[in-house]
Amino acid sequence: MCGRYTFFSPRESVTRLFDTPVPVSIEARYNIAPTQFVPVIRLDAQGGRKLVMLHWGLVPSWAREKAIGNRMINARAETLAEKPSFKRAFSHRRCLVLASGFYEWRKEDGARRPYFISRKDSDPIAMAGLWESWRHETEPLESCTIITTEANDFMQALHHRMPAILAPEECGRWLDSENVGIVEAADLLRPLQADSLQAWPVSTRVNNPRNEGARLLDPVA
Q1: Does the active-site annotation cover 104?
Q2: pLDDT tens readout for residues 49-95
Q3: Of 12, 95, 104, 142, which residue is the catalytic one?
Q4: Can 2 be counted among the known catalytic residues?
Q5: Where are the alpha helices (H) located in 32-138, listed in sequence order?
Q6: Where do the domains of the chain lie?
Q7: What is the DSSP letter of 167?
Q8: Class for the domain spanning 5-207
Q9: pTM of this prediction exceeds 0.85
């Protein structure tokens, strides 16, 4: 799964790789947690890419209450077309959730040790996602979920799942739900090449979502 991640990549890198300007107002984040608003790329009405801030935890349009999103921070790639919560968004509302890396916890000596995982080349990553629009009375809420897939050989040592990370050249097809159907889109949801990732243990301070700052990435023994 993916339950905590970061986004601190230079705006120039995001624009270069994903052809989307990043507003100056987007701050570096080192401990992004569910229910927070997160930077997401989706297509606008004219078919252009646009960065927006969406609530992390997908709330389907038919939901009676917002709290259902707390259980929908991730969606399994293998069952997107079957689950009522995700199948319409999979067909019509696909997005990219931007990250610089993500955290995973492994049990060591009876305790859960957090690890930070990122690309070896430090490039930003685009995690495949879905988005929805939900309205309660007159207050709309746009929300998203991160799609996960089976872990690659590198991630197996930490967890059996990982985010579905798209290569920059795959992002256009993923976003284009008008011309790219769910069968072709599903083919993009595969584990990232194992030798492109790196990981190291970090402080358990990351366990508390109130803790922030670059020091959370410092390696620990």
Answers
A1: yes
A2: 999 999 999 999 999 889 999 999 999 999 999 999 999 999 999 99
A3: 104
A4: yes
A5: 87-92
A6: 5-207
A7: P
A8: alpha beta
A9: yes
